[in-house]
Write a structure and sequence with these properties.
By secondary structure, this protein is of the alpha+beta class. It contains two helices and two strands; from the N terminus they run αββα.
């Protein structure tokens, strides 16, 4: 009745971001630099969700 709880195949917000970046043609592993000049992956370690892309 409600879509409040995930029953199967939960995904992290990082994976959703990586999927969006992938569709836009942006490499999710591309480094960006934080305020301390440390490299961080654009999607923070997320991976594109293959089921959405196929």
């Amino acid at each position: 009745e409600q879509a409040a709880f995930i029953k199967d195949k939960p995904v992290h917000i990082r994976d959703i971001c990586a999927t969006i970046y992938h569709v836009l043609g942006i490499d999710p592993e591309m480094p960006v630099y934080d305020r301390a000049s440390r490299p961080v992956a654009v999607a923070h370690g997320g991976h594109p969700i293959g089921e959405i892309l196929s």
